## 1
Amino acid sequence: MSGKPRRLNKEDPAEGAQPPKQKTASDGASPAAVRLQGITKRYPGVLANDDINLEIAAGSIHGLLGENGAGKSTLMKILFGLVTPDAGEIQLGGRMASIDSTRTALDLGIGMVQQHFSLIADFTVTENLVLGKEPTRRGPFLDMERAKSEVQELSDRYDFRIDPSAKVASLAVGARQRVEILKALYRGAEMLILDEPTAALAPPEVEELAGLLRRLRDQGRTVVFISHKLPEVIDLCDRVSVLRSGRVEGHREITSNDRSNPQALTSELARMMVGHDLPESPARGDAAADAVLLRLDEATDGGRLGPLSLEVRGGEIVGVAGVEGNGQTELVEMILGVRRCSKGTIRLIGEDATRWSVRRRLASGLAHIAEDRHGTGVAERMDLAHNVTLGFQGTRPFSRRGVWLSLSQMRRFADGVVRRFSVLSPSVATLVAGLSGGNQQKLVVGRELSRGPRVILAAQPTRGLDVKAAAFVHDELADLCRRDGVGVLLVSLELSEVLALSDRVLVMSEGGIAGETRPGDMDVTTLGRWMTGGARSGVAA
Amino acid sequence: MLEIFDMNWLAQGIRLSVPLVFAALGGLLSERAGVINIALEGKMLAGAFTGVAVTWWSGSNVLGLFAALAAGAAVGWVHAWFCISVRADQIVSATAINLFALGITAALIPAIWEGGRANTPGVDRFRSFDFPLLNDIPGLGTVFQRLSWFDYAAIALAPVIWILLWRTPFGLRLRSCGESPEAAASVGVNVIRTRYVAVMLAGVLAALGGVYLSLVQNGLFQRGITNGRGFLALAAMIFGKWKPIPVLAACLLFGLADAYQLRAQSRSELPVELFQALPYVIGLITLLFVGRAIAPAAIGRAYVKE
């Protein structure tokens, strides 16, 4: 932020342009591409990084594991020049480096793919890649032909399967992410930092990404993989460092033995992450055959969604699995009432709700955990108390005679949600924008579950949550189901989440329901066929 | 009244659309870089006035022209400073510029030219340009005879702007500032400087549109001579979806409709106002067909350097 030079670099301030290459061929063990020593970063009230020492070997995939707020992202932002540390030093290839901006990081061969992509949607892949260092011909003119062939060549070399002429806006999330990686490589990144790269990906896309990262490693590049998902880290990484509350809990080599038999390592790493044993997943009982609370009959939006039929009974969790972009978002929107149901019917708790307004649906007991937290889940520029009561501002006890807001009632309710769902926030008068993503999500989930719902539309309810918080949300959903007979429609791109929680699983493909199964008698091949049945691979043609 | 559609109508329509073309293409540059430009009206007025004033003072309309372009760049700089450096609201600062330009040009007429109230004395205006071969074409020749080199320049400007924006590194960077300044800055594009250049170029082009009104068509400056053309240019820019060739087409449509109504109203019993509304009605009807216009993603958003 400030233009002040850092103190990282006492010995040799001029040093800075030494790419971390050309040290692959030393003694047996891989040399360190990066050595972080004593990195400390303090934010008001939080010690994000506390004296962190970390070595990342060249030509390896290094996992950085930790819960939300453990300090993984901060540490990597320091390495990428986005954040200036209060103390500590960075060595690249054995030399001190002063990384004061992302430009410097890029010049040093460090690239980072962040959770929010930095691509321009209206530009083609090639335009995005060459922006800032455009090839020209005949003086001032862009040489798009050369740029395209360069991009194509790079894409082919690592099998990215990206069309250089495709507009980024037309690409699926997984493909956009590959473009982001391609962009870093195009700019000469020897080392790639990926911040929670699988958060928005469906299982086949995760596999694809893993394959790509292995190919990059095999060609000598270094990859840092930030995640809080244990199975992915164990499967992909050569070495893992675990962070907890801003400190390094430990490092661990991952052997092929660990990969074939991951249980022991999983619980060891989970203990390091959380500080104690993981809570058990909720036990699955038989769903009570209660009344049907939500029922769709040949409902369609007249476009790409449906017609489809489904029902959710009280005391039952119905999971909806599928590759992203196969109508899950539209389904949730239609049940919520922001998308028109042009044909067919939607019945809510025994009544025909097809033509009901959103408000009436919510008032009759529908709750909605929004998939897109930033866009629809919260109003970031409002405080917690307002966010928690939003949508119910006109009803008691939050408002008197539908006119006067009762701030004290709103705050009391918000306090309850914050406590019960352990949302980390200085107070309920804090703007939601000041909360971390995980805490925002806890707030959204807490708000919806605290309203005494009868039917819960849970769209990606644990997106961005750490293991502990995700387990807590799962427990709450299961509890509401068992105890209060609530019906839950759980839409998730995480197959493991759907399978762990649901009584029945529906698989969506191309706007319809491709099949239904129970987690007990699941057959992976069939499931895979349903999920990909004619579906897009996420690659532009 | 089909007999209105003749060569004179065509020539007049082109001439009426030219000030719109300059201003709309200027607005396009500015908005593609992410700065909303409803200050086109004010920039046109500044150009129109300065052109006449300097021509009157120096006796040279060429000098007047260049002074007008400089004035456009200066007003553009002021607009850019408010929008980019001060990060003021872009609509508010542009409105202030429009009102200020209208007021100051009107106030300066009696201050400089004693006795003059609403308009300046006449000055030497730019004449039509003789294109030896084209002028002799039967029929169409009448059109070319009535065009000045400004008219040819306006039509040629659209493809030039297209090449600038889509075929040069500068254009790619300019558009990246309008789509995602943060992404642009992260790869080393100087967002602040690029936006300044774009808004100042917009000022120059809008001033050129103003000069056309005063130094080409009328040979004098009149209070409020632009009469809303800056806003019409803005509408044409949106009709054209921020793309140079469609923007040119939209301006021509407005100009031809305007020429039609000017000629039709003198031959009809119907109220003049009905005819005057014609270009706008046509604009609204075209809106039904052009579909949704998608503005640059980061338009109107100030960029805060990290």
## 2
Amino acid sequence: MFLVKPELGLIIWSSVTFLLLLFILSKFAWKPILAALKEREQKISDSLELAEKTKLEMQAVQAGNERLLNEARLERDKILKEAKEMKESILNQAKKSAEDETRKSIALAKEAIDKEKFAAMSEMKSAAATLSVEIAEKILRKKLENSAEQDSLINEYLKQMNA
Amino acid sequence: MFVNIKSIKFLFLVTFFTTFFAFSAFSQHEEHAAATEHHSATEKFKPGKMILEHIRDAHDWHICDIGGHPVSVSLPIIIYSEKGLEVFSSAKFEHGHASYNGYKLVEGVIEAEDVTHKFYDLSITKNVMAMMIGFILLIIVMLSVARSYKNGLGAPKGIGAFVEPLIVFLQDEVVKPSIGKHYARYMPLLLTMFFGIFFLNLMGLIPIIPGGANVTGNIAFTLVLAVITFIVTTVTAKKDYWKHILMPDVPVLLYIIVIPIEIIGVLNKPIVLMIRLFANITAGHIIILGFFSLIFIFGEMSSGLGLGVSVFSVIFTLFMSFLELLVAFLQAYVFVFLSSLFFGQAIEEHHHAEAHH
């Protein structure tokens, strides 16, 4: 039965010692330990938060970079395209003006040739006319050297005219 | 309302202590009756006697017997009576063979030769000594842990690496969920209880001085802890706790049944705490001592048999010791867990009660 009989002495000493222990440990051990634990917990959660924030910032910066890069790429493409177009239009223009020029000079040449041709023809015509007149004169002169022949000729012509 | 609650608290404490002292006085009376019919020790090995001597409190710290003479550390005897305070060494009793100043030692208990003489035994007994040594070691350990936090907040090193996870575990897994947002107020008490019980449990497993005492397996020690839990529960309790006990949510006619049940429930909690710790630790010690007793029981039949049995005894004792290491932690944990549950129940506020108005 003594096992379940609490002894007064031990009760008193236990109470006193335990309360002393509680006081000493609370003041000199639990307080700093719990404070340190709390501080560390705070530090860890702060660090985690900071890391998360930094990560988000990094992502934002990266996205910004990506956007800038894309914009630059688009700009480059646009500039390249414009340059190409300009080149093409310049080429086309040049080609066209060259063609026009050629066509114009050809037309001029043709015109000149035609004019020359016409002049030559008319000259040739007048020359031929003069020549033929001269030849006819010469022939007539020769034919009209004797009167008989002159008469026959006149008659012939007259006949021809009467016919 | 506050005055009411305070007077209720006071009433509760008074009732509790009256009950306890009545119980104590009754068992003391019984003890006296038992002590008068004690027999002198015989040469034959009595395992029951040996085991009880080991798990009970004593006025000297027994180490071993050499040639039939006990070798022990004598502890101071402090007696308070009408004659005043008497302080002397327990060596004066010569292990119960002599009487001193009108007192004698009967089976480890001090008795007055004059039966009518009333006195209180406030001696520094083996358990008190072991408790003090254990607590001083605990203070040294914890102060060194606390000091280690002064140089920065790095990962804990040394003994701190063992202590810190326990503190964090108790805080985050035991105290916070049971008590709620006001948990910080209770942390110092619960931590002191946990490490105090755990430390003394472990010291009780060490067979030689300064261990070997059965402090946490002594009902006086567990009683003190349970009473502290009870007082803290009662003093910190909020309105809802008292309302639940004194004005339960049942028809008024049933109050006559329900209120006594609730009061018994309230008193039951610390009593169960007290008995659980005491019984678990004492049982562990009894089992280990029982295994050792087997060696001597069989050794008395024949020394060869004792030698043979000793192999099994040692194996079983080793197994039990490992189990007791677990129990040392487990019982400290259970005590603190239940205490924090009780604290949590006492300060719980039922917000849904307002919704009825």
